[in-house]
Amino acid sequence: MNKRKVACSILSFLFSVCILAMGTAAVRGQSANPPPCPRFAAGSIIKAAPDLFSDDGKLYVNLTYRTTIDQNNNTLFCFMQNDGTQSPTLHVHPGDTIIFTLKNALPPPTGAASTFSATKRQEAAAAIANAGKISIASTVPCGDAVQNASSVNVHYHGTNTSPTCHSDEVIHTLINSGTTFQYQLHIPANEPPGLYWYHPHVHGLAEKALQGGASGAIIVQGIGAINPETEGLPERILMVRDNPVPGNPTPGGAVPSWDLSLNYAPVPFPNYPPVIIPMRPGEKQLWRVANASSDSILDLQVQFNGVAQPLRVVGLDGVPTGSQDGTQTGKTIVKHDILLAPAARAEFIVTAPTSSLVNAQLLTLGIDTGPFGDDDPQRPLAQIKVSKTAEEPNLTVQDAGAKKFRMRWESATTCTPSITRTLYFSEVLSDPTNPSSPTNFFITVDGATPVLFDANNPPAIVTQQGACEDWIIQNRTQENHEFHQHQIHFLLLEENGVPVAPDDRQFLDMKQVVFWDGVSPTFPSFKARMSFEGHDIGDFVYHCHILGHEDNGMMAIERVLPNESKNTAKPAGAAPAAPLRAAAKGTPLFTVDTSLGASGAPVPAASGTASQPPAAKTNKK
Ligand SMILES: [Cu+2]
After folding, report:
1. How would you classify residue 145: left for phi > 0, otherwise alpha for psi between -120 and 50, otherwise beta?
2. Confidence tier at 402 by pLDDT (50, 70, 90)
């Protein structure tokens, strides 16, 4: 490969011919490898991802990022192991380090890579660092300098890890075709035990990467010690993903905006053949479910003959429920349905029916996402098949040796907020005179000017390590949005100005804000406590986790200054630097060529620039 690269630079006058040759070679090289991104048959028995366990405080992960086109002409992306398996579940203990090496084996892109050069990135970074009085120049760029259609990086969702280069940094990290990059992710010693996950997070490319299936689970071990009800239970990790509906029928009514899959077995429209989950009669299992879809909102329910069953919830977004009151003991919460925003996780105990005659299903209820939202109709995901000889899951909760400990975020239940910030979701047509023009999405501190996300924007919020703050997040649009905060969890306090029920006062990294009806004098909102305790400083991001919205602007940077700094928390909108470049409505700040034509595979018809997706995918028809 290196020799080919040298040859290419020498023969620059034959540039396009050379790129084509590299693409062809890449395809030939892949043919000797296991086929990328395998999928299971619809209606098949649930399959678990391969499991990797840390040893002596370290977990080595070696993955290759690959792509292919499936029989429905959908582009798949995947994190492959050398043995042909994909998306391993990473099992770690608090305090462990994940050494995550990723090789990007995507074919190189064919077109112009980006209009935003490495030099411009560095100049902009220097200006921001100067304005913010801390140096982040060492993190810019991180990996490759110029984003293109093949770029990837990895976000370790929910983990309370450092947002620095080679850790959980998503603003500047780029791993381009042909590049190998290593992360060393230090899981804090006080990380709550539970379900986290990893996925690509390159702005403009995240939705397609997630729909392609590139995501996997992370389990921080120890739930059995925090909530003894889980100890000894068979354990299943269930990853719900989404993808374009074959044939791209117009969403609406019973037609979903996206199809769903469960552990890589599709559950396609219109018949939704459920995945089979074997259980023994009356058996209890711990189901650890991640909504790893790009855009689809779930509302999970287990029904026996159409009747909702109690789900004993022990963890939300990786944090044991009810565990932060000083007792270091989790408290089980009983729910009959669990709303799961894109990227949210729920861990709950399911009891199988005692008879195989019961029609037992895991399903998602329909979501009213608002007049401009996607179509997320009710549909089954899995059928529980009861038999005395049912095959047991390959995992069992075995944490008897684990100790209880003072978990991260415990102090957020008692800290006194120094400031209340109000932020809001908004969206506008890029061309107000053209209803079919793409939508621009924003998340904005109240009082500031809405700007589309750009990696070189100044921070929208500047705060300080150790700060305790209350944030109110409003939805001023007519579709649901899903707030996600990187690096920290938040304590849910209020919804629409009303304190939440004690069972809902939990630590989350995801929270939905439902759509505004267009007439009410107040906007739907929630209030949460943000505690910037711990070691992590630098540039965090917050965004909507409907990735079609995030890719189109709905993300912003918050800078957490070290606490020895003389800077103090600034009020809303008072970030110390002006935007480096104004974001003109409808003008992409940089353009991304999303064609992957060098693979020789067909380029999906839906490809456009990242800043201008097909309107049908963001606006209901
Ligand atoms: Cu959104």
Report:
1. alpha
2. confident
Q: For residues 427 and 475, is the Cβ–Cβ distance under 8 A?
A: no
Q: Is 489 in a helix, a strand, or coil?
A: coil
pLDDT digits (tens, 9 = 90+) for 510-568: 999 999 999 999 999 999 999 999 889 999 999 999 999 999 999 999 999 998 744 44
Mean pLDDT of 468-479: 98
DSSP-H helix ranges across 64-197 = 118-132
Distance 482 CA to ligand 1 centre (A): 6
29 sits in which H/E element: helix 15-31
- pLDDT tens for each residue of 353-384: 999 999 999 999 999 999 999 999 999 999 99
550 CA → ligand 1 middle, Å:
7
H or E, element range at 80: strand 75-80
Could you tell me the distance, in angstroms and rounded to a whole number, from the CA of residue 607 to the centre of ligand 1?
21
What distance in angstroms lies between residue 369's CA and the mean position of ligand 1's atoms? 10
The Å distance, Cα 619 to ligand 1 centre, comes to 11
* Residue 399, pLDDT above cutoff 60: yes
**What separation in Å is there between the alpha carbon of 149 and the centre of ligand 1?**
23
Distance in angstroms (rounded) separating the CA atoms of residues 233 and 395 = 9
Q: Are 86 and 78 in contact (CB under 8 A)?
A: yes
Q: What DSSP letter does each residue of 328-382 carry, written as one string?
A: -----EEES-EEE-TT-EEEEEEE--SSTTS-EEEEE--B---TTS--B--EEEE
Q: How many CA atoms within 13 Å lie on the side-chain side of 355? A: 5
Q: Kindly give the distance from the C-alpha atom of residue 104 to the centroid of ligand 1, in angstroms, as a whole number.
A: 28
Q: Is 3 helix (H, G, I), strand (E, B) or coil?
A: helix
Read off the pLDDT of each residue in 480-505 and give the average, rounded to a whole number: 97
For β-strands 468-475 and 419-429, DSSP reports them as parallel
Backbone angles phi, psi at 174, to 5 degrees: -135, 125
Strand 298-304 versus strand 311-316 pairing type: unpaired
Burial of 82 (0-12, 13-18, 19+ CB in 10 A): exposed
Residue type (1 letter), 342: P
pTM for the model: 0.84
HSE of 457, CA atoms in CB hemisphere, 13 A: 29
What is the model's pLDDT at position 322? 95
Cα of 583 vs centre of ligand 1, distance in Å, is 19
Alpha-helix residue ranges (DSSP H) falling in 204-287: 206-211, 223-226
- In the predicted model, is pLDDT for residue 608 greater than 80? no
